[in-house]
Design goal:
Blueprint lengths: L3 H12 L5 H31 L1
Helix pairs in contact: 1-2
Length: about 50
Amino acid sequence: MSDPIDTWTHRLQDLTSELNPDRAHRFVEDVYRAAQADLDEKRAEAEFEREE
């Protein structure tokens, strides 16, 4: 399975040639980590609700 960060970084870079590859990668990492944190929080809330 390919790394989703690399996949999305390449997709973002395909939109414009003006993006610095390192900045694009960091941006995608930031968005991915924030999304994962939100999902983890929602999963924890759902698990808590199931246990009550």
